[in-house]
Amino acid sequence: MSTHRFLTEPHTVAIVGCPFSGGQPRPGVDKGPIHLVNAGLVDQLKSLGWAVEFAGHHLFEDISVQGDPPVGIVKRPRLVSGVTSAVSQIIGGHAAQGRLPLTIGGDHSLALGTILGTFGKYPNACLIWIDAHADINTATTTDSGNLHGMPVSLLLGLPGNESIEDTYFSWLTQPGVGITNGEHNKPTKRPVLTPAQLVYIGLRDVDAGERAILRQNGIKAFSMHEVDKFGIGKVMEMALDHVNPNRDLPIHLSFDVDALDPSVAPSTGTPVRGGLTFREGHYICEAIHETGLLVGLDIMEVNPSLEDEGSVQQTVKVGCSLARAALGETLL
Ligand SMILES: [Mn+2]
């Protein structure tokens, strides 16, 4: 196995199964992690030379929410907050031990917890977000009110989330930097992430409000247009040059399987045609592995209740092979 600059020996991947679907409306996405593990993910990663820790899925049954009416249009803020805050603790614990947390979802609102978990240990890390969507709506711009379309705006602390931020997501702050404001003695919140730490690849279904947010904040994004224009090899180089110019910063890779073309990964909640090919998706993971800088990995939005049995098996298999590619599987 190649080197992993930030992980302790023996290299250990902690699989964190999060069967959670509260950030979006469709049932079934919570079955994704169960299918990925049943497909043999643990043994597959062991065969790549990793020590694998997997202690069952996190069902979050202790997080009970007595009534969870929407706040404005935003749905289930209490449940999503409770679950993702618990996820951040779990991921943070693994990161602190020098393990590589691999979170399998579940819907992409889970990234609220996974990103805070790894960025708590590695505040200077970068985030590479692979997705058909930007997931950067705010409580003000969202049309659907589904929190799986909003995690990035909350992680960046963008304006527009005032209605939910202080009440439900006050925990979503860079830990260890609680600066006290001398005048009012009020702790100042610092966003988990800055726009310069983030890069997108695979976008092709971006809402008007999200486009404005990307532009106003100078967030780097390689849409499918750039993938077509430059090829995935060059796009990965440019993406890393942007967030990790000296190739010395930790990397969190958050991979939504809907970034892949629906012909490659059909069983997902919000498929959009014109996506990444099988090889382009795997190349992204392989290129990240080659850096030796990976410290956190999410494989999200596998939904086995959508489409026929063959499509489900195909999507689950792709989810497993993306994880293997990010953890060192090569073609030769
Ligand atoms: Mn997503």
Automatic annotation (TrEMBL):
InterPro entries, per the entry: Arginase (IPR014033), Ureohydrolase (IPR006035), Ureohydrolase_dom_sf (IPR023696), Ureohydrolase_Mn_BS (IPR020855)
Cofactors: Mn(2+)
GO BP terms: arginine metabolic process
UniProt entry keywords in alphabetical sequence: Arginine metabolism, Hydrolase, Manganese, Metal-binding
Record text on cofactor binding: Binds 2 manganese ions per subunit.
EC number per UniProt: 3.5.3.1
Binding site for Mn(2+): 108, 131, 133, 135, 256, 258
Involved pathway(s): Nitrogen metabolism; urea cycle; L-ornithine and urea from L-arginine: step 1/1
Gene Ontology terms for molecular function: arginase activity; manganese ion binding
Enzyme class: hydrolase
Lineage: superkingdom: Eukaryota
Catalytic activity: L-arginine + H2O = urea + L-ornithine
Gene Ontology cellular-component annotations: cytosol; nucleus
UniProt xrefs under Gene3D superfamilies: Ureohydrolase domain
Cross-referenced PANTHER family: ARGINASE
Family note: Belongs to the arginase family.
Protein name (Swiss-Prot/TrEMBL): Arginase
Organism per entry: Hydnum rufescens UP504
